[in-house]
Design goal:
heterodimer; A: 515 residues; FAD/NAD(P)-binding domain; Enolase-like, domain 1; 5-stranded parallel β-sheet; B: 698 residues; alpha/beta; Rossmann fold; 7-stranded mixed β-sheet; 6-stranded mixed β-sheet; 30 strands; 29% helix
Chain lengths: 515, 698
């Protein structure tokens, strides 16, 4: 089995295969990857940018199954099958079932897996590229393999090398008291901007549509997110397109202004990397290489998964779930495993902002649930940067935007993931635990059956009877009923009860204790 | 506690004792514990069943013991020594646990011995041994918790299972990890503490998620923590990578615990000058229990807690002698002194103490579930001796266990009341209860305690040690090898444990008589860790790991772990998670506590806690009888609406027998290392008890 690509999904597939077949008894695995360091965790690049993580942290984790009986000490578990990184596949000969590597070698395969990922989409903007393409700096970003090298003060953010390059730009900008412009106010742009701001880098996000994350958010939520980000020091220019990058000056905008900036980060989307698949004649759909539920392409001996495949691309979670499905099939663990899609949940990973979007929240027809239409709930609290919108069809959550209500998000995402029915108390669902806790009522409000001392099953009624039978001090109540003789947690309640009983039943309180 | 006999009737009265762990507190089980001693349901004469379908009839001791040993000897002669098995208990005294292990290996010559503690602490024990080179519930006195600024309780509910311990916690500084809002979680919430309610079976990911947050938020970069990891541990880099993959949003999606709560919990924990992480059965009773505990230990090590004065990691024991019971040879793979059974030097030492040849000591046998599952099968044991346990109720997939117990040629049960297991026995031996015999116990701190007999057993009742003595002598061993009195057994236990991990050599009886606090390892009465002073000064090793961990290099090991799913997940047919646990009023299988009137009145029958929405969808009103169905069987239980339950989860206490036995549902998928069954996660559906067509799981 040959895997082309050792990014997040390709390396995850290797891991999943090794977990199921640790001794290489069923699958002989070869991984071909372009990056010298394979399988770094792209999700963690913002963490790397803000300095919380090291390059080592985002590199692949320890390989091998942790559930083997012997202590899973790093390095103990050997990887089976030859691993080949640092090279690329230049062609696939489907008839001969071989791949041709850039270094001239040919590798035969029984099964080929394409995990070639995606590439950044560059806007058609003058000034992004070096005037003389091919000056070939070592740190040239990955995107322009087809479009020529980017200018030295421009980068994308897909690979570890891109992250290094962006950090270098940010350092230079800081040193000169200058700013970084981020083009694109989607998830990646905002996460990167937030991470740079956390490092003390001045940053402005430029976004062509009037509100941020317009793929996921409605205008109200977008506005509130903008305010929250401004509070965190992230400037924004919204509703205006960029027209030209001018090195040493900044970004020229459609409204005629110039945003002064020392560096430009392009976060303007990504597209499935399908070159290899196309050249060898595999069917390619609008979102990437066409695959069925078994992740098989139009050639039964070739599979594709992750960002390059036309099956929920763009997020990590689907890619990892696909890796598990494919590994189960290829190792023979489960020949009928199928990938049936992953519920789409977007979570902005930006410190200080709690934003979760799921499903389709763009329903504005606020019909009542009775007429069979969608049910829409919305709470706006712009002063506190909070917004919550929930769309239900019947009992199922079909869309939501949750900004600044983290307690609700966690429970809601689980409901959505499983397609489980929503609780009848919709408001509690929308607010999570934000509802005020039950107030600790005084002794008078407690019913007689209320448990006071759990350790010894003593109710208020039992304590009251004991008090009327003459046990008037907390000590006497404890001696007769054993309340407060366990963990002691109810001592205060017993004291309050005793005081309240003495207050409300003074005539009994004065009665001398029976001998 | 103190027990005082009334001058006229001899009826015992319970009074709490002011002791460091309980601070003079007792829960309802403690207050009522003397009631069963005089219960009319006590067994006072041996019972024998003449043939499989015959009723149990009364018999004399000589007849019963002779019958048992004759059958054991026949099976040994015809089918080999491993045809006779032994099942012990974490409720036995140290002396009895030791004698039972020796009885199995020396008198019966069988390798087939394990005990119910396998269902209790084995995951934490395995993780602790790997990380620290040694396993002791709390490696520090419980009173250290009084000054802790943050305590994480993972899958532990001491407000119900060990109420007096709650006095050591400041509830405002508690972080309770439990799928349910337990009494403990509620106590924390009321005081401003935290409750993290993960999806059942995801605590491992939660621990890694907390470690991730601690890492990226810079909590681990303090000079003290950096130096601790450098000087006192190995393996951090690999674990750092494991944690790097569990960013909060990913952790949130799997566990259902809000990323914001993860950050809050990590900040509280990391900001505390003294902090503790404590695990209970909720973390341990999984088919990934060892890895789950390891992940929490990793978090503790990253924060520099273990072996630092005033901080640490610990595991809360479950049974009366949960700690001591696991140290002296009841486990299938273990010899006294917490030695591994394959350890050559340990075997030779035990051979000398026992007066046998090293090669006569059997090797490792089956673990608890595997042992029960093999009973009466072609390759499995044909006879079983049970002491202090009721596996027909407390073992996982209990219907299968009952079937296997029925499949035995010969079952012998020593108990003091009838239980669901004695009902299946061929011979029942009536034995003394806790207040009727002396012995030692080791509490969760590793402190050895003297338990004194408060009264004599009822006429006709013998102690477990007397039973073992009688059986061993009839099997041809000498009486001196199996003394009926606890004192010589303890003397031999001290010699047998000498040089082992749990070294009791220095635990001199006079120290226990004086109530001196003695913590193992205690190589000699004045040995390592001893402090000068009178008898009140702590002896032995009250705090472990202060200078070094128990691995040869003196370092603790970070354990790289990766999350994996529970063996069984909810699906369309069984859409809910079921988790099991204890309630305050009952102990284990309930054989004792269900016979105490006050406890029975407070908690009379099986119930299932469920979110009102989930119950209504199944057509169940509060208080109605529900049927809870898993792939392994069906349980009838009273519906209890609990608004704080996760809508995807139901909870059942496991103390009840028959149609209410929660363990009919549980999944015996085993942890690959500890062989712990997955009590805490099974997939079930909920339906009305009067619904048509009961579909039995098996």
């Amino acid at each position: 089995m040959v895997v082309v690509g050792n990014g997040m999904v390709g390396s995850r597939l290797s891991e999943e295969v090794l977990r199921r077949d640790p001794l290489g008894a069923r699958v002989r695995l070869t991984v071909v990857g372009a990056e010298p360091v394979g399988g770094y965790n792209r999700v963690l690049l913002p963490g790397l940018l803000c300095g919380a993580l090291t390059e080592d942290d985002v590199a692949p984790g320890p390989l091998g199954p942790s559930h083997l009986p012997d202590p899973p000490v790093a390095g103990e578990i050997s990887v089976h099958g030859p691993f080949s990184t640092g090279s690329t596949v230049t062609a696939v000969d489907r008839a001969a079932r071989t791949v041709l590597l850039a270094d001239g070698r040919r590798l035969p395969y029984d099964r080929l897996v394409l995990a070639t990922g995606a590439r950044a989409v560059l806007p058609p903007l003058p000034g992004l590229h070096l005037d003389a393409p091919g000056t070939g700096a070592d740190d040239a970003p990955t995107a322009p393999t087809r479009t020529g090298a980017l200018a030295h003060d421009v980068t994308v953010l897909r690979t570890l090398a891109d992250a290094r390059r962006l950090l270098a730009l940010a350092h230079q900008a800081c040193a000169r008291g200058a700013r970084i412009a981020v083009l694109g106010g989607g998830v990646l742009g905002l996460e990167a901007a937030r991470a740079l701001a956390a490092r003390g880098v001045a940053v402005t996000v430029v976004h062509a549509t009037p509100h941020l994350m317009d793929q996921q958010l409605d205008p109200q939520a977008g506005r509130i997110l903008s305010r929250a980000l401004r509070r965190l020091g992230i400037e924004q220019r919204l509703g205006t397109a960029a027209v030209r990058w001018e090195a040493g000056v900044g970004l020229h905008l459609a409204d005629g202004t110039v945003l002064p900036a020392a560096g430009l980060l392009l976060c303007t989307g990504a597209r499935a990397e399908t070159t290899l698949a196309e050249t060898c004649g595999l069917a390619v759909g609008p979102g990437g290489i066409a695959v069925d539920e078994a992740l098989t392409t139009s050639d039964p001996a070739i599979h594709a998964l992750g960002d390059c495949a036309d099956a929920d691309p763009g997020l990590v979670q689907p890619g990892w779930e696909q890796a598990a499905v494919l590994a189960a099939r290829l190792t023979g663990e489960n020949d009928t495993a199928r990938y049936l899609g992953t519920p789409r949940v977007t979570r902005l990973k930006a410190a200080g902002i709690e934003l979760t979007c799921l499903g389709d929240p763009f329903v504005e027809d606020e019909g009542t649930a009775d007429d069979g239409g969608p049910e829409v709930l919305r709470i706006e609290d712009p002063a506190r940067d909070r917004y919550a919108k929930l769309v239900l069809h019947g009992d199922r959550v079909t869309g939501a935007i949750l900004l600044g209500v983290p307690d609700a998000a966690a429970g809601l995402v689980q409901l959505y993931d499983r397609g489980a029915p929503a609780p009848s108390d919709r408001l509690a669902l929308l607010l999570g635990r934000a509802l005020p806790p039950e107030t600790a009522d005084g002794p008078e409000a407690m019913p007689d059956r209320a448990m006071v001392c759990r350790c010894n099953s003593v109710t208020k009624g039992v304590l009251r009877s004991a008090w009327h039978e003459g046990a008037h001090t907390p000590q006497e109540l404890a001696a007769t009923t054993r309340a407060a003789t366990g963990c002691g947690g109810c001592r205060t309640t017993v004291e309050k009860l005793a005081a309240w009983l003495a207050e409300t039943a003074p005539e009994v309180g004065r009665t001398p204790r029976p001998p | 506690m103190f027990l005082t006999p009334a001058p006229d009737t001899g009826q015992l009265t319970v009074a709490p004792r002011d002791f460091p762990t309980n601070r003079g507190g007792l829960c309802q089980k403690g207050w009522t514990s003397a009631e069963l001693l005089t219960s009319p349901e006590r067994l006072t004469t041996p019972l024998i069943r003449d043939g499989k379908d015959a009723p149990l009839r009364e018999a004399g001791w000589d007849e019963a013991l002779a019958h048992v040993t004759r059958r054991f000897a026949e099976l040994r002669a015809t089918r080999g020594p491993d045809s006779v098995a032994v099942f012990g208990s974490g409720g036995l005294t140290n002396e009895k646990a030791y004698a039972l292990g020796k009885f199995a290996r020396v008198a019966l010559g069988t390798s087939q011995i394990d005990y119910n503690g396998r269902f209790c602490m084995s995951s934490a024990a395995a993780a602790g041994n790997r990380a620290f080179g040694l396993d002791r519930g709390l490696p520090f006195p419980a009173t250290d918790l009084d000054d802790s600024e943050a305590v994480v309780l993972v899958g532990a509910n001491p407000a119900e299972t060990m109420p007096p311990l709650m006095g050591h916690f400041d509830p405002a500084r508690l972080i309770v990890v439990d799928p349910r809002r337990t009494a403990t979680a509620q106590t924390a919430l009321d005081a401003g503490g935290l409750h993290l309610a993960p999806t059942p079976g995801t605590d491992l990911a939660l621990a890694l998620g907390l470690l991730h947050v601690a890492l990226v938020e810079g909590h681990l970069d303090t000079p003290g923590r950096v130096a601790y990891r450098r000087d006192r541990t190995t393996g951090w880099e690999a674990v750092r990578k494991c944690a790097a993959r569990w960013w909060p949003e990913r952790t949130e999606r799997l566990t259902g615990v809000a990323a914001a709560d993860l950050r809050r919990a990590a900040a509280v924990l990391a900001g505390a000058r003294r902090a503790h992480i404590l695990t209970g059965r909720g973390a341990e009773q999984h088919s990934k229990g060892v890895d789950t505990v390891a992940a929490w230990i990793d978090l503790a090590l990253a924060l520099g807690l273990p072996g630092t004065p005033g901080s640490g990691y610990g595991c809360l024991t479950g049974q009366g002698n949960g700690q001591g019971g696991r140290e002296h040879g009841q486990k299938s793979d273990q010899l006294p002194g917490y030695r591994h059974i394959e350890d050559r030097a340990g075997r030779e030492h035990l051979a000398r103490v026992w007066g046998v040849r090293e090669e006569e000591i059997p090797g490792a046998g089956r673990s608890a579930w595997e042992l029960l599952d093999a009973l009466g099968t072609q390759d499995g044991p044909a006879a079983l001796l049970v002491m202090g346990s009721n596996p027909a109720v407390s073992a996982p997939r209990s219907r299968r266990v009952i079937e296997r117990l029925r499949g035995l040629d010969f079952l012998v049960v020593a108990d003091f009341v009838r239980s669901e297991t004695t009902e299946l026995a061929d011979v029942v031996l009536p034995v003394a209860m806790w207040a009727e015999e002396s012995g030692t116990m080791t509490n969760l701190e590793g402190r050895v305690l003297r338990r004194r007999a408060a009264k004599a057993p009822p006429p006709g009742v013998r102690t477990d040690l007397e039973v073992l003595h009688g059986l061993a002598v009839r099997l041809g061993r000498s009486g001196e090898e199996f003394p009926p009195d606890p004192a010589p057994v303890f003397a031999e236990l001290r010699r047998a444990s000498a040089g082992g991990v749990a070294d009791y050599a220095g635990v001199e009886p006079r120290l226990l008589d004086d109530d001196a606090p003695v913590y193992w390892p205690a190589r000699s009465a004045t040995g390592a860790g001893t402090r000068p002073g009178g008898p009140a000064a702590a002896l032995g090793t009250p705090r472990l790991f202060l200078d070094r961990f128990a691995h040869a290099d003196g370092r603790a090991r970070f354990l790289p772990v990766e999350y994996r799913e529970a063996a069984e997940l909810p699906d369309a047919e069984h859409p809910l998670y079921a988790t099991t646990g204890r309630q305050l009023e009952h102990y284990q299988s309930g054989a004792q506590t269900r016979r105490v009137p006050a406890l029975r009145a407070a908690a009379p029958q099986a119930y299932v806690e469920v979110h009102p929405d989930t119950a209504r969808r199944a057509g169940l009103a509060d208080g109605e009888e529900a049927r809870v169905v898993s792939r392994r069987g069906t349980v009838l239980a009273r519906t209890r609406y609990v608004a704080s339950m996760r809508p995807d989860t139901v909870f059942l206490p496991f103390h009840f027998p028959g149609t209410g036995a929660a363990n009919v549902l549980t999944n015996p998928a085993l942890d690959p290392v500890s062989r712990m069954p997955e009590f805490k996660v099974s997939a079930v559906r909920l339906e009305r008890a009067d619904a048509n067509a009961p579909k039995e799981g098996e």
